Amino acid sequence: MTWLSLSLMSFMALMVVIVYEARWVYPEIQAYFSQTGSLTGQQLATRSREYLQRAQRYLLSESLFEDEQQALRLNLDLAYGLIDIDVYRQKYTCTNTSLQTLTLLTQRLDENNVAPFDAAAELLGPIECLTRIEMNQLDLRGMAINEFSQNTRRHNQVVTYSSLVIFVLGLLFWRMHERQLRRTEHATEQMLIWMQQAMCDPLTGIGNRSALHQDIVNNEGESLALILVDIDFFKQYNDFLGHPEGDQLLRRLARLLKHVLGKDAKLYRLGGDEFAAVVPCNDDALLVSYCDQVTSALQEADFKHPAHPDNERVTLSIGAVRFTAGEFTLSTAYEAADKALYRVKSAGRDDWQITAAA
Ligand SMILES: Nc1nc2c(ncn2[C@@H]2O[C@H](COP(=O)(O)OP(=O)(O)OP(=O)(O)O)[C@@H](O)[C@H]2O)c(=O)[nH]1
């Protein structure tokens, strides 16, 4: 498992915690404060009690005319309707007694068989019952609210702490992932640098033998020319002017070859004073012109060689061949160009020769 996946999993866990906790709150609020829940039963008892008290006032008034009697009946009926509910019946035993009292009282009122003061006194029982219901329901409501706020607080703490922990873990994993990424990038960069160094001649900055081989394989199928260049009497040059001057000559020659052969040419130092150039070339005339150009440019550059037996300036021996790039064609081409170069050396140096690949 990678640091990245651990980090992403942490952030996903954070989302899950938040969503889960958010889902918890909504139904809880609904349950506690639902308009159809038993908590609102307190309001019904209050209304019912108010109707009974109003009925009591009618009964206690000095005269009870037709209108007042009707209002009295209506209040008693309304009060009855509001306490005749399952919640009250099941939870409070006084409910049934109160309902019986109201039924009997209504019957006797209809029969005109009750004194108003007595009737008002009879209503005290149901009123007391309703007051008890109100108080009890209020207590229940208070307890429910308390429980809800405690639960909310507990859930809030859980969300806060777990979110914090998960978030910190997510950040930590993310940092580890970034560190790992940077390390990998650094290692890749280093590897590229090493690979480049492994393909490069440190003295002249051009490619080495491995790079030559790699480039030929990479350009498989292309028509190319391989030009081998060797400095004449370089040993004498070194011996006469010193090794550092010899190094300097190698660098100057690399620059000259690059300049003369142009940007399409690739240059390599194969070792000692031997250079190779690979140029796109599909006809001998072009290859001849490349060799001529190198020789002329060197003449013009006029690098002094005080120890040269035949000349006072640096001269080159060149062997060149055209070939088609491929995994196995370089060795044949190299052999042919090298032989051509050897022939130039044998014939007195300071010349070039092109040949056909075997
Ligand atoms: N300054 C310097 N000299 C080098 C380097 N590598 C090889 N050499 C010298 O290059 C010289 C090559 O000598 P040879 O192979 O005899 O070639 P040459 O003297 O040019 O003789 P011909 O090629 O026959 O004309 C040797 O003296 C090596 O010490 C280098 O990196 N720097």
Q: How does this structure look, described?
A:
This protein has 358 residues and is α+β, with helices and mostly antiparallel strands. The protein folds into two domains: 1-192, Four Helix Bundle (Hemerythrin (Met), subunit A) (Up-down Bundle), CATH 1.20.120; 209-356, Alpha-Beta Plaits, CATH 3.30.70. The chain has twelve helices and five strands. The protein has helices at 3-33, 41-60, 66-83, 86-91, 94-110, 116-122, 124-198, 209-218, 234-241, 243-261, 284-301, 329-346, and strands spanning 223-231, 266-271, 274-280, 316-324, 351-356. Strand 2 (266-271) and strand 3 (274-280) form a beta hairpin. The chain starts with a helix and ends with a strand. Guanosine-5'-triphosphate binds at residues 203, 230-235, 238, 243, 246-247, 250, 272-273, 345. The site of guanosine-5'-triphosphate has 15 residues, from strand 1, helix 9 and helix 10. InterPro entries: Diguanylate_Cyclase (IPR050469), GGDEF_dom (IPR000160), Nucleotide_cyclase (IPR029787), Rev_trsase/Diguanyl_cyclase (IPR043128).
Shape: rod-shaped
Helical/strand content category: alpha+beta
Characterize the biggest β-sheet. Answer: 5 strands, mixed
Beta percentage is 5-15%
Number of β-strand runs: 5
Number of domains: 2
CATH A-level architecture of the largest domain: Up-down Bundle
Order of secondary-structure elements:
HHHHHHHHEHHEEHEHE
Residue stretches low in confidence (pLDDT < 50, at least 5 long) are none
Q: Count up the helices.
A: 12
InterPro entries: Diguanylate_Cyclase, GGDEF_dom, Nucleotide_cyclase, Rev_trsase/Diguanyl_cyclase
GO molecular function: diguanylate cyclase activity
Pfam families: GGDEF
Organism: Halomonas qinghailakensis
